Structures are given as C-alpha cells and as structure tokens.
Amino acid sequence: DVKVTQSSRYLVKRTGEKVFLECVQDMDHENMFWYRQDPGLGLRLIYFSYDVKMKEKGDIPEGYSVSREKKERFSLILESASTNQTSMYLCASTSQGVVADTQYFGPGTRLTVL
Amino acid sequence: GEDVEQSLFLSVREGDSSVINCTYTDSSSTYLYWYKQEPGAGLQLLTYIFSNMDMKQDQRLTVLLNKKDKHLSLRIADTQTGDSAIYFCAEIPRDSGYALNFGKGTSLLVTP
Is A16 at the interface with chain B, CB within 8 A? Predict the structure, then answer.
C-alpha cells in the first residue's frame, strides 16, 4: 500500500515564524502536491513538483515556497506565517504508472497561526 | 483554475439512496474522481471513471458520466450512517501536470 505521511497532525505557530511542513511518500512517485483545504473553498493547489528540484506554482502560491531535494520528500515552507494561513494542509503523490493517475493523500496537517 | 461545481449539503435517511451531483470544467479530462473525507481524516479515493465510460458500478456506488453536459454523479445505495462524510468531485484538466481540480465538497449527513 502506498503511504504518504506528514510530519505533524496539528501545529500551532506565531505570526512571523518560519514554518516547515514535511511530506514523505514511500512509493517512488515522481509527482507530489501540496493543497490547502478551507471550509467552503474546498481544496486549492499551492505547489506541485514532478521531479527532484523541480517545482510548479499552483493556484495560490503566494506566501509559500517548496523544496524537493529528494524524490520521496516534498516540503512546504511558510517564510513568515500569517493568520490567513491558518488551514488544513494536505500532501499528495502520484506517478505516471499509477492506475487512473490516482493521487494518494496524507492525513493532513492542521496549522493554526496565532 | 475554473470551478468544479457541487452542492454543499445533502441530508438523507439511513437506507435511502444518496445522489451527489457535480459539474466539471474540462471535457478533455481522462479520468474523473470521487474522493471521500471522513471527519478529521485525509482524503480517500472512493472511485473513478474513465472518460469513455457512461457508468461504473462498484458495490453500493454508481457513477454516471454525461460528457456532453460535463456532469458527473455519485449514487450511494442503501446509505448508512458510516457514509456521513464530505464527498469531493475532482478532475485532472489538461496541462495541469497531474494536479487535481476539486469541487468544494458535498457534506453528506445520514440520519437514523
């Protein structure tokens, strides 16, 4: 079974702090994604990566950056956290070889910025 | 991206059928998906349909696809209280790099 893990289930940070959210997948997938989920807005794509050291902006990249130094790990970075970044963050991965291009999701990190 | 449209809430009685509707945006999407999110959990792929199919049945789940209208529906037969969750419709638009474009989710409440 594919496993996508995220470093924390819950995180509380202060405004202005630098925040790292880590995601690791164990199935050698090329593609990894970061989404944020907010009530009434559904899931919105922040960034994705289709290879090591490659990254592409999604729909809402402002205030975020990412790092993909190893194939299995995709990090989301909030350089200076703000209260409007309080949200649920979901990581996902997929591969061209996966049936129906299925994406596998981690359990999510609920981030609160005070 | 453009919006995938879903109604936000649906309430049904246990044992009834539930139908969740979705209108997607990209007629060239190869697959269309339904994801389920239970309270406090991540997203779980429930089912998917290939774009050249009209219908797919998987136990209590039936997916109907109308490509002309870009309309997707999920029917859950004999709905149980354990089916209470948020259901997301999703597509992978061409040129999205495998990134999913989600609807806002339909909260299904099943009452005894």
Answer: no
Q: How far is B42 from chain A (nearest CA, A)?
A: 4
Alpha carbon separation from B103 to A40, B8, B38, B53, B60 (Å, rounded): 10, 10, 16, 21, 22
pLDDT tens-digit map of B31-60: 899 999 998 888 999 999 998 999 999 999
CA distance to A112, B14, B35, B78, per residue, from A38 (Å): 12, 28, 16, 30
Nearest to A29 by CA among A55, A8, A2: A2
